[in-house]
Design goal:
Length: 554
């Protein structure tokens, strides 16, 4: 088998054929909210015009890698290097579209199995070459940025060939899988056993099991199914010091949890080569529904009541006032329906209301009806108005399309960035306001006033996540500095207001400067000690997690 082709187009999200033009209504709304947009449509440069340094992999290192995986699985052609040059964060796309792949890896290596992964790590340790584990490459925090640290060369270790479901245990409800399986491949394989993992991040179509585990990702139905950390039963991880495996016990008191150390290790400790996951019966019935809440505060109260009463739907998503207004205005299509909906909500005192999407999935209609009745009752008690399943299912059907819109906005000179955090219920609204104000102030100061909006989408008994989206005119020629100003202001505000620097995107490069503020210097030392044990030469994913590197635009 030759090395697999890249899954995503090199300059943006996903595959060709899913982009739609920005409607005149959306363009008018943007111009009204953030100022006039530059004329024209800025397409990415051609692949041949991307600036790429000569590969710097020493011949001896290449020989060792070829011995590990075979010559056809060590690629240094333009397409392979450019598609592994960055993740899919805003700053990645800005650089790629402009033809800047200056930090591309010197080669991309495609091992076939766990033994070959171990052989690649041995080869890289011997040749002193940095290694960046690469799943789907959908990191939005610089997690797959091929930084070389103190090494002369860096390779991307692409796990695409480790793409099999290895075993299913229908008695214990577990599935053992290789790390390179994407969401659709995994769900398709589990469907043959009438099972599901239930992990649906927005990047589902292109991200991988290994990437999810390495970043502690959270799916859109995480309130019901749990985050990926809750779904991992056991792991096998190849490290430069050897393999480490955790035992598949349902729970254990055998000291601090090694599994917890490896989940979220972001390729900085080793490579996840196998994961045993907790799966469950595939749902046969689903109901997604829209509700309107009079205010964001009423919505968060309602969500807290639901989860604390043990009545949480599987999907819980609450937009703040701004996000609701923009979603309604951008819902496109039929302006009449949008106007009718707005009129209906105004008549019920929800003029500045907030949209909630809630969803239930199960294996029987009776169970679904019972759960839905309990949930809807609590929502109504907090002033919610039922909008019906049309709104809910429209969200369900469009939920993987939004990333294509970001590409189109970039073509119109518009910045669209997202970031996320979480905190306890008592601080949630203050955190929301602090982060929104910080982003607004940072971008206003640069003459590009933004629209900042947010939603809650992962809900726990003790608190919830906040996911911010902000849109502003790009500062031509200073796009990265503009991004950095907003990112730094938001990150400072998050820590000051008691949030975590990341609820599910991980630390990567972009959050590493703020990690000490969250875990303390002693905490960082402890993590560095673990890294020194598993990766004594420091070849694993330099510049990430506990090894801060300068950010783009800083
Ligand atoms: C449009 C979009 C939507 C997104 N939506 C969500 C969302 O809903 N929820 C969410 O949690 N995240 C989301 N993300 C972020 C991203 O998809 C997740 O972080 C995802 O888990 C990354 O998976 P991946 O396979 O693409 O990993 P990659 O991007 O390839 O890698 C991410 C990190 O994990 C490491 N890594 C990858 N594979 C392995 C392995 N086998 N062993 C060790 N380390 C490894 C890498 O070195 C890197 O540090 C989104 C991103 C985008 C662009």
């Amino acid at each position: 088998m030759t090395a697999p082709d890249p899954r995503m187009r090199w300059w943006g999200w996903g595959e060709d054929g899913h982009d739609g033009p920005l409607s005149p209504g959306a363009q008018a709304l943007l111009a009204e909210q953030i100022g006039p947009l530059p004329a024209g449509h800025r397409d990415p440069v051609a692949l041949e015009d991307v600036r790429l340094p000569e590969p710097a992999l020493p011949a001896a290192a290449r020989e060792l890698l070829v011995a590990a995986v075979g010559a056809e699985h060590v690629r240094d052609d333009r397409l392979a290097r450019v598609t592994h040059a960055a993740g899919r964060g805003y700053h990645d796309l800005v650089r790629l579209r402009a033809g800047d792949a200056g930090g591309a890896p010197d080669a991309v290596v495609y091992p076939a199995d766990a033994a070959e992964v171990a052989a690649v790590l041995r080869a890289c340790a011997e040749a002193q070459v940095a290694v960046v584990p690469f799943g789907g490459g959908t990191s939005v925090v610089g997690g797959v940025e091929p930084l070389r640290g103190r090494f002369a060369a860096v390779v991307a270790l692409d796990l695409a060939r480790l793409d099999r479901l290895l075993a299913v245990d229908p008695v214990s409800l577990t599935a053992t899988v290789q790390p390179g399986m994407t969401g659709p491949a995994l769900e398709e394989a589990l469907a043959e056993h009438e099972l599901t993992l239930g992990h649906f991040p927005q990047s589902f179509e292109f991200s991988t099991v290994g990437g999810w585990v390495a970043t502690r990702s959270s799916g859109q139905a995480s309130t019901g199914y749990g985050r990926i950390d809750a779904l991992v039963l056991a792991l096998r991880v190849a490290t430069p010091s050897g393999e480490i495996a955790t035992r598949a016990a349902p729970a254990s008191a055998a000291g601090p949890s090694l599994r917890e150390l490896l989940v979220g290790s972001e390729g900085a400790l080793g490579v996840i080569v196998e994961a045993t996951l907790r799966v469950r019966a595939r749902p046969s019935v689903r109901r997604y529904e829209g509700f309107s809440l009079p205010r964001f505060a009423a919505g968060t109260d309602a969500f807290r009541a639901l989860v604390q009463a043990g009545a949480a739907p599987d999907v819980m998503r609450l937009s703040d006032e701004r996000e609701t207004q923009v979603s309604l205005a951008m819902s496109g299509g039929d302006g009449l329906t949008t106007r009718a909906l707005k009129g209906y909500l105004r008549a019920r005192g929800h003029g500045d209301g907030c949209l909630a999407i809630v969803g239930w999935a199960g294996t029987s209609e009776a169970e679904l009806r019972r759960r839905r009745a309990a949930g809807a009752q609590l929502l109504r008690a907090h002033g919610a108005v039922v909008l019906g399943t049309q709104v809910g299912h429209a969200w369900e059907h469009g939920r993987f399309n939004a990333p294509y819109l970001r590409d189109e906005l970039l073509a119109h000179g518009v910045m669209l960035e997202t970031l996320e955090t979480a905190t306890t219920w008592d601080r949630l609204l203050a955190l929301h306001d602090a982060v929104a104000s910080a982003i607004d102030a940072a971008l206003r100061a640069r003459g590009t006033p933004p629209v900042v909006m947010a939603h809650v989408s992962h809900v726990y008994r003790a608190g919830a996540s906040l996911y911010f989206t902000f849109v502003a005119r790009q500062q031509a020629g200073e796009e990265l500095e503009q991004w950095h100003a907003a990112k730094a202001a938001a990150s400072d505000a998050i820590l000051a207001a008691g949030g975590t620097i990341t609820h599910h995107h991980a630390v990567g490069r972009d959050h590493a400067p703020w990690l000490p503020g969250e875990v303390g210097e002693l905490g960082i030392e402890l993590l560095r000690a673990a890294k020194a044990t598993l990766d004594p030469a420091g070849i694993m994913n330099p510049g990430k997690l506990v090894d801060p590197a300068p950010l783009p635009g800083s």
